[in-house]
Amino acid sequence: SWSIFEDRILYQLLVFLQPPSRHSFRLELYSGTRLPERCSNIRVVLECTCLKEMGNIPCFVHPRKDKETAQHSPLLQTLCTGSYLDVEEIACWVQNLVQTAWEHLPQWQHWQLTVLPSSHSCRVLLSGPSDIQLCAVLVFAVEQGSP
């Protein structure tokens, strides 16, 4: 969605997260009196790939005995707390990704990108040569029922 407030255009974008190969997402609702839409955890499940034809890609669940080092999931190590997606880690990762990508876009040399503080989304402000500012808010979601 988008809206205009005086000299600022606000874009709100819903970004659906997809699990990488050998992973799946499982929605786990809290039991209690709070609203389930607001109080859910997304558990990252490592999928067994032993019986699938995936070439030399190792299985996270059943590592080969001939390998000296066990394989670890980069997703679990970077964007999760325990086995659950951590929205603060995701927001920080996307903010860094946007900032790094922006530095490689020469066509935007007359625009300034400011990453705004946010622990549950990615908020960026673009200021250009005119008085108009663009603000984009990336909100993260996982589609319920998707693999």
From TrEMBL:
It comes from the Eukaryota. This is IPIL1 protein. It comes from Dryoscopus gambensis.
